[in-house]
Amino acid sequence: MNLKPSELAMVPFVSVANMMKLIHHVGIEKMLTEIAHEIEEDFKRWELFDKTPRIPSHSDVGVIELMPTSDGELYGFKYVNGHPKNAAAGLQTVTGFGLLADVRTGYPVLVSEMTVLTALRTAAMSAVATKHLAQKSARTMAMIGNGAQSEFQILALKAVCGIDTARLYDIDPSATEKCAANLKGLGIKIIKCQSPEEVIEGADIITTATADKNYQTILTDNLVGAGVHINAIGGDCPGKTELHRDVVARASVFVEYPPQTRIEGEIQQMDADHPVTELWQVIAGRIEGRKSASEVTLFDGVGFAIEDFSALRYVQRAIKGTALYRELDMIADPDDPRDLFGMVLRAG
Amino acid sequence: MNLKPSELAMVPFVSVANMMKLIHHVGIEKMLTEIAHEIEEDFKRWELFDKTPRIPSHSDVGVIELMPTSDGELYGFKYVNGHPKNAAAGLQTVTGFGLLADVRTGYPVLVSEMTVLTALRTAAMSAVATKHLAQKSARTMAMIGNGAQSEFQILALKAVCGIDTARLYDIDPSATEKCAANLKGLGIKIIKCQSPEEVIEGADIITTATADKNYQTILTDNLVGAGVHINAIGGDCPGKTELHRDVVARASVFVEYPPQTRIEGEIQQMDADHPVTELWQVIAGRIEGRKSASEVTLFDGVGFAIEDFSALRYVQRAIKGTALYRELDMIADPDDPRDLFGMVLRAG
Q1: What was the ipTM of the complex prediction?
Q2: Can you say whether the dihedral through the CA atoms of A23, A27, A29, A33 is positive or negative?
Q3: Phi, psi of B73 (to 5 degrees)
Q4: CATH architecture of the region B7-116+306-337
Q5: DSSP class per residue in A169-185
Q6: By the CB < 8 Å criterion, does A119 face chain B?
Q7: Cα of A182 to nearest chain B Cα, Å
Q8: What are the sequence ranges of the domains in chain A?
Q9: Which of B119, B148, B339 lies at the smallest CB-CB distance from A178?
Q10: I need a labelling partner for B262 at 20 to 30 A (CA). Which of A93, A180, A188, B144 fits?
Q11: Does the domain formed by A123-304 have CATH 3.90.70.10?
């Protein structure tokens, strides 16, 4: 009797080590560009996705969330936590893993780490927003918050939008040093700055990625010049914002999924009917994005399930023909599906 | 430089093969009894759990669901599908896997298959309901629907409630043959029956576990005698019921979580305010269960997240000191949590 799991019972699993190998196998800028392309393609067909705000479980130290979606053929979800105090304990603030399943059978077809992959997809998402909203001539970005996301954000904007200069600022100078050291030799001019005022000098694009869980005003209105595009990606839960409300009030605001962004994004500071444009409508060519060279555009990014879905589907394809995954025996697959008990019995 | 994943980054994973070994290591009746005990303990502290109806993604062939909960210390969720037509294609109707995480850090602490484990926890749940609702003298059960769940249901009622005789019926006689063969030598008197009328003769407990996704009336009112306890566990989604509404109307109905059961359970046939008792209140000693020897009690079981949580926590403890799991490199754990990019860079 064959008691080895059948092929049907096996689910490919991409570990953290293999995800890192995949990044080097593909090349990080190419992978960021390709994930950005996947996100764009999925945003174009936004309407056919099953959409729901993420499902949170809050505690006094953080949040654990599930982010499911489906395009009718594949179902995907991400498990992700957000624990701002983890960093002080030497742990990641955000970790995650994700799954894809076949809608026709309900069988999982991929399980993957998503701590590293989320950094890539978040950066790719900022790049997609920037590509569609920033001025085409933009070459200099300011990166405020030089933590775990910062290098990915900068490289994605280099790869997708042609940024050649990154100005760095963090309240902790050692974070800026770390970011600058990591980006050395990667083809970007790095300028280390000492203040929010200094970092945005001459920047066409401002990306904020700070992590503290309370209302902050990293950017005040007098700092933001005409024509700038802002990616505000650090504020992604209730009570966590990065921009002064005057900045939000002056900008044209673009969001992923309004029911989620109104709770979690910068616009949680504004009235419940504050006007926003859904970014997918810009990508699909239905609504104009930037309307003038002097307009301030704001991508109020909180991260949406479809972006994780795009990234997971990319990984599912990218690992084919490689040894960068292993099979997990995760699904019971008895010879007779009604005979689960017999399968258990015979394993004895 | 140490590029091997740290211990923090590793998550114990229990495969299907290891879950089956665990069952044999512990003993199936002991494991059913212990999971039933875990469920009872968690139902006693029901109020402190974070509760939400499961989050479904429906398609025309089935449903994929996420079932999260938390007791404030551990967070758990189950991924589970329900695809009634899978069986005809040689696939499982229901497969699943689950996760436990530490609420303080958001880090996963267990990943486990849950196709086999769900069968155990569903059976343990029926046993808990039966223990608290059936007549203490009950020794004979009728099992209607002799598919993948049936043997587990019968063994759990033997182990927890002292059942010594199981009467079997299925519209497919080969399912009954399979169930009877699997239970041979396990200390239960088995009686194979040819009709619903025959199977319930002399039964003190009736358990229905049929899978088709439409309104069925496997049990009509004239069949159900006074004093019987019914576990209706097959109807667990909108449009899927097993009992004639007259049976439900006559019985005292006990449920897990009313907001979910009113959508998915037998009581979806009844008015939205049809009286029900939450089973946890009976287990906690706050409300009387069975009030007389002639009362018909009905456990309208649909499966709730807390039961999966109880089962996963049991597994987490049970695998300690065994070799019945392996470590998955599922969480990125850079030396400096802000330096995710550096970790990726150095892996090259």
Answers
A1: 0.91
A2: negative
A3: -110, -45
A4: 2-Layer Sandwich (3.30)
A5: E-SSHHHHHHHHHHHTT
A6: yes
A7: 6
A8: 7-116+306-346, 123-304
A9: B339
A10: B144
A11: no
B343 and A CB contact within 8 Å: yes
Q: Do A66 and B75 touch (CB under 8 A)?
A: no
* Chain B residues with beta carbon closer than 8 angstroms to that of A107: 81, 91, 95
Structural tokens at position B179: 């169930």
pLDDT per position as a tens digit, B143-158: 999 998 999 999 999 9
**What tens-digit pLDDT sequence spans chain A (348 residues)?**
344 566 777 999 999 999 999 999 999 999 999 999 999 999 999 999 999 888 999 999 999 999 999 999 999 999 999 898 888 888 888 889 999 999 999 999 999 999 999 999 999 999 999 999 999 999 999 999 999 999 999 999 999 999 999 999 999 999 999 999 999 999 999 999 999 999 999 999 999 998 665 666 777 777 889 999 999 998 666 777 888 889 999 999 999 999 989 988 999 999 999 999 999 999 999 999 999 999 999 999 999 999 999 999 999 999 999 999 999 999 887 888 889 999 999 998
CA distance A255 to chain B (A): 24
Which of B254, B234, B236 minimizes the C-alpha distance to B299? B254
CB contact under 8 A, A70 and B64: yes
A246 classed as catalytic: no
For residue A37, give every residue at least 6 positions away whose Cβ sits within 8 Å of its Cβ, in sequence order, or none: none
* pLDDT at position B2 over 60: no
Burial (CB < 10 A; 0-12, 13-18, 19+), residue B225, is: middle
B11–chain A nearest CA distance, Å: 11
Q: Which CATH number among 3.20.20.70, 3.30.70.270, 3.40.50.720, 2.40.50.100 corresponds to the domain B125-303?
A: 3.40.50.720
A191 touching B, CB under 8 A? no
- Confirm or reject contact between A51 and chain B (CB < 8 A): no
What residues of A are in contact with residue B119 (Cβ under 8 Å)? 340-341
Q: Residue A27 and residue A183: Cα distance in Å, rounded? A: 15
Which residue in the list A42, A170, A204, A236 is annotated as catalytic? A236
Tell the burial category of B288 from Cβ atoms under 10 Å away from its Cβ (0-12, 13-18, 19+): exposed
CB contacts of B16 in chain A (<8 Å) are 5, 9, 329-333
Phi/psi at B57 (5° precision): -125, 105
Report the gap between the CA of B282 and the closest CA in chain A (Å): 27
pLDDT tens for each residue of B46-77: 999 999 888 999 999 999 999 999 999 999 99
